[in-house]
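Cross-check.
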Amino acid sequence: MKKHYLIYALASGLFIQPVLAQQKKTSASATKTTTSKTDNSVPLDPAVKVGKLPNGFTYYIRRNVEPKNRVTIYLANKAGSILENDNQRGLAHLMEHMSFNGTKNFPKNELVNYLQKTGVRFGADLNAYTSFDETVYQLPIPSDDPVIVKNGLQIMRDWAQDATLDPVEIDKERGVVLEEKRLGKGAQQRMQEKYLPMLFNNSRYSNRLPIGTEDVLKNATPQTIKDFYRDWYRPNLQALIVVGDIDVNEMEQMIKAKFSDLKNPVNAKPRTKYDIPLSGKNQFVAVTDKEFPVTVAQILIKHKEQPLLTKTDLKNSVTRSLYNQMLGARFSELSKQANPPFLQAGSNISGFLAGLDAATTFIAAKPGEFEKGLKTTFTEVERVKRFGFTATELERAKASFLTSQESAFKEKDKTSSNSFVQEYVQLFLKGTVSPGIEYEYNFYKNALPSITLAEVNALAKQYITDINRDVIIMAPDKEKDNLPSEAKVNEWINSVVADKSITAYVDQVSDKPLLAKKPVAGKVVSEKKITEIGVTELTLSNGVKVVLKPTDFKNDEISFYGFSPGGTSLYSDADYQSAANAASVISRGGVGEFNSIQLPKYLNGKRAFVSPMISERSEGISASTTPKDLETALQLTYLYFTAPRKDPEIFKGIISQQKGNLANRDSDPNSVFGDTVSAVTGNYNVRRTGPSVEKLNQINLDRAFEIYKERFADASDFTFTFVGSFDVAKIKPLLEQYLGSLPSTNRKEKAVDLGIRVPAGLITKTVLKGQEPKATVRLLFSGDYTYNSANNNQLDALAEVLNIKLIERLREDEGGVYGVNAGASYSKYPVNRYSLSISFGCAPENVEKLIASTLDEIKKIKINGAVAVDIQKFVAEETRSTETQLKSNQFWLGNIVGSYQNEEDPKEVLTYIDSLKLVTPESLKSAANTYLSGKNLIKFILLPEKK
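Predicted model, tokenized:
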């Protein structure tokens, strides 16, 4: 299932933030129900039908047709690891696993087997999670087959109280959960064990992580697991959430018939609500680990959770959102200095856990600059506390907030069922309600003007206090002697508070238009229809080709992507680093008359996200916007072609931060392993080896700027694809204005074949890195290929069949892995090639055995062909997922762009489902012998360092 335990993770490898399993939502839409009928109460959306059976079982039902012919069902239990006895630590999570290993109506693995045949993917669709306070099961299924819907409800009914808990199956699943626990081991987990007791104030949460203890997982008796199930899986702690393309009244009757006989235990244990008590004191801990890559500090100031009960509370939560947005923007500006004082930093007020909120300030420091980074970060928080925000900052934050709400309101009839399900899960578990987007939008629109600068500024004084403050420092072992003491950190913080030189923030804005003068428009010179897929092809007078697919999948969404052949392949190895980084370096400097600080402020309140890129074989533009902001997005596109900016200060800052990120990269086992895989598969070509300070020093700003201008100097070979909510006739003038005016020299370019191939033959590459007893295995088959849709289908099917067989054997039968993944890839250019990789994590002593088991499953397919039922599962999954994807803008954008890049017919998508009929046991037997012959096989193995 999903990851189940709390962990403080490095976000993007840079800073820490709480990732609490399904932590309490504190968004502006979260409110609690109230029995009061005063004008201050917040109603529940009338579109959801709520009921409670006599046994206490709750249900929520809503009709929603996005996606059509689908229904999403969740079973929520107010039973998580916090309820475990000492001899049950980890059994709430193991119990979740056991629900998939046999129930009254679906013995052993029949439940997963049945659902896969209906097109439901194990892990991706069918899943569950266990947290401190709840266990939640999810099941998205087709709703156009009454039998599948009926069986889906039966599965939920079985999960609610009819898991079989066969001792044989329990013993098999122990290994799976222990392997899941193994995957979580590493530097963060080792440090977490040291700081969590302090962070959770030595409360019950400190020793009830959902993943549990090895002793309990290995030795708990089946009866102990059954005791937990009997005590806590009971109707007065459960709810069913059903949202989808269904009849609400009919579904309600089915629920009543199916769940009314659930029984609460006699003399049921009280469901205690645990909390984390505030101690009223400050706490400090510093921990180190040899594999931790950076020095990180997190300062959490804990407060009692602010209840969200009324309209007043709802307004207050909006005020907090505005505060977080403005403070985040300030830290973003700090990061754009020539020598940023940190690798990453920020501060916000958000929900924490167990009835607490926290004002959290975090920093990932540059090597040797921890004091400077921490003081600079806290200075920014103190600046807000002392001087507050400016009126222009608040104006922008309000505009941005309202824009996001307007977009949600416009999509109210196109909102996915999953979004509603998540809201109703929180309604049941936390008492939060969503009054519905129409109510919310009107409320926000009316409330925002009344929120004053003084109200927002007051939050800093309310939350940035000097009690209930926890300071956590994490660092590499080699920094252990350089870390400050608690007294020293307090001295630093106090020095900031006492610093009289801190001045008020100056808001740098520009009142210039994005484009001072509109460019001379081009013209549409030809037009072609591809009626089968609703596409119009335009050619503009400067040679730009535009592919248009208007859709009604979303009301307020337009995505577009432009590309031309070339990319970094046209440049020498000496220029490669400058070429590969040109787009990111130059675009971060701003565009036209707007620098990197002014541009985000100008775009505030608009939804126009435009990003230039240069890849190995092409350059281009990726963008998403709305009908209202399409012109702005096209203006940005025009400027990224014609008026890029070279900002030396931004460049220095990027290089400085990247060098800081690399300082201890070689201490992280996963980074070392990933770099090794890339280097070996790229035949140690300089373009495939890992990052280094030497490579960063090769990036020359002037050369990067030249390369960027060269790549975007000629638009005549660009193809732009637009998908979304637009009218072809109405969009043409905008395309002529901004794309038709792009520079054109009519040069003829093609990407160069660099000759980089995965090496042939039998290769084993073992990496020894890391302290924990865990291994990572990746098997890579590759070779020459005949690229066509038929072969692609066979390769995809082969990978999915292997996924099915390896999960059955390595996970379910042998209990040797938590997960295994087989995936295929293939390319048409520069030459036809394929690869199929299989990867898993396991115990070091099981590596060779599990590799042998994997190769044995491959051998079976090569000798006997695939099992027909596994092909049935693949076809069902692909059919059901394709039906849904065909109603997605992003799917169509990717499909059309891919077709034009590979010079293929975009109409092939219409025959894809029918083409799957050509996948047979015999065809996969042939594919396995062709692609998995074993002649070209690389075994990558990551093992712990030898003691």
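The radius of gyration is 29 Å. Residues 1-37 have pLDDT under 50 and may be disordered. Passed to J.P. for a second look.
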